[in-house]
Amino acid sequence: MHLTALAVSLALLAASGSLASPTLPLHAREVVTVTRTVAGPAATSYDWANGATPDFPIHPSCNATERVQLERAFAETIKLAQHAKEHVLRFGNSSAFYTKYFGNAPTAEPIGWFDKVVSADRGGMWFRCDNPDGNCEQEGKQCFFFMKRFIEGRIISRTDGDIIGWGGHWRGENATLETVICPLSYSTRWPLEAMCGNGYTVAGGATNAYWASDIMHRLFHVYNVGEGTIEHYADDYAACLALAASNPEEAVRNSDTLQYFALDVYAWDVALPGEGCTGKAPEGSSSAAATGSATSSASSSTTGIAGSMSAEASSIIASPTLAEVQTTTSDAAAVSYPHTE
């Protein structure tokens, strides 16, 4: 009896222990995952492109017609500069065009200048159509219309001192980020699609014949693009070739050199592929004697071109000698280009 009672007590004690601390098999256990959100630092609102000005600002003084033409001119300027950059990236200094205009200078700087025309921030710039400085008419002052027109193969240049006006100008100290486009530009500049038409040649024509190259020149004056570094070291075709031979460091920072190069490679690569319209500059310039000594070095830079640039290209590029510089016809005096026009 006592043994039975003891056995029962032990059994009850064992049962109570099992209920107090149940031991379940592993497969019966349940894992519960609890997710807790911990507050962290607030997400940053930084946007590196915030406040950028990717488009060329057109001043309210421009009417709807002028605005449309300027927008097209800006697009063509970017197209011209983009191709000039891509030509250098593609061929480097093995390009006959490159060595012709930049000599043995490293390629990085011209690439950079053209890229700034394409992509530099336009903040603070204005292209305006009014005449705040009175330069569009140049009333009471002698001025020259330097835009060369091609009529029946003859270069016409107005140099008779008439009050004709300017096509536009950088405002300089009056407003360093502003450019004025005068009414004359709208009736004289050609679209890029007319490249090599109207009797135009790169060597014999004006760098401001096309909207694209004219706007490029004006951008080089603005600090956002030219950084106060691009200058007018040489202003005509022959002088630019001479500069490439004698001072490549200045050639890659010369406004007209950059324009001539862009026009020449666009004509050869895009407008008339494999043919272009380099041409020859007219004879009889007063600068021929000063530049003649550089003829051999400038011409020799076009030899040994990589296979992708044909021998025919080299002969066309080298054909204008440094004695053949841009000039006017015999009934007009030779002129030099001011920074404003």
Automatic annotation (TrEMBL):
Alphabetic keyword roster: Signal
Record's signal peptide: 1-20
Residue segments, region Disordered: 281-305
Annotated Putative peptidase domain residues: 25-139, 165-280
InterPro entries: HRXXH, MetalloPept_cat_dom_sf, PRA1-like
Name of a matching Pfam family: HRXXH
Composition-biased stretches (Low complexity): 284-305
UniProt feature coiled coil, ranges: none
Full protein name: Prenylated Rab acceptor protein 1
Upper taxonomic lineage: Eukaryota, Fungi, Dikarya, Ascomycota, Pezizomycotina
